[in-house]
Design a protein that fits this description.
The protein is 74% helix and 0% strand. By secondary structure, it is mostly helical. It folds into 2 domains: 2-40; 54-318, Orthogonal Bundle (MetI-like fold). Helix 12 (234-257) runs antiparallel to helix 15 (290-314). The longest helix has 39 residues, at 2-40. The N and C termini lie far apart (57 Å).
Length: 320
Amino acid sequence: MGINMNREEKKIEKKFRKKTKYNMTEVSGEKRNAAKDIANESFFQMIFRRFRQHHLAMVSLIIVAILGLAALLAPVIAPYDPDEIVGTFSGAPCREFWLGTDQIGRDVFSRLLYAMRISLLVGIMATVISTVVGVILGLIAGYFGGIADMIIMRFTDMVMSFPYILLVLVAAAIFKPGLWNIILILGFVDWPGIARLVRGNVLSLRETNFVKGNLVAGMPLRHILFSEILPNTVAPILVYATSVLALSMLDEAALSFLGLGVQPPTASLGNMLNGAQSLTVLTKQPWLWIPAGTLIVVLVMAINFIGDALRDALDPNSRR
């Protein structure tokens, strides 16, 4: 009986070893195929694969896409004209007005859609302006050096030495408040950080062999700067631009809240919060400030999460 039991145990053990060996071979094959796929993928495929690993960033990207699409389609989605008086003053949310009405009877939901469009426009345009200015000045300072570098960097240091919010407030007070003035102010205030970032990258890239090879080959300066050096600095610029986008939206909201930004009747997330300066509105009429405040928080946090994921995806030290 004992001999038969030992034989049965040995048969079971032998089958288990064969099965385990087969499974390990299968797993090893899957790993080899996965490694082969990763080795054959393009640069953008690698970036997207690494970005997808950040689940919070993917959720944030979906949220930003949905909110951006809603803002773009505001004339179609909004049930009322944002500047039209359609209800009672400070009316509470109901079936007709989902988020209630403001102090003069305008639909809050309709104004929120248009306000989101204005705030995103300010953030995107200010980011584009500051990025273009910063990249150009950074390229010139980093590549040519000498007097050009000294002048640009000393001017950059002077701008950065002023308290940021004070500089924005003074510029907004000097120029007439308005949509395009705020875009230009924020665009020309946020460039120093990008300029310093680009300059640092160019200083290291101009000593590389491929740049020196282009110089020896007699390639034009335009080609060296914009076809060789600039593409190798896109990654940090893109990551930094996401933080500038979030900061520009916050600045617009702060300026509009103080009455120095986008002026009524044009709706922005900031001037929709302007009415929430009294205790009565804060405690008894939350529909006048909670939707706009929540949208600002959600948009800024989502953009920051996307920026963090881009930083990790573009980091050359963590690529596999």
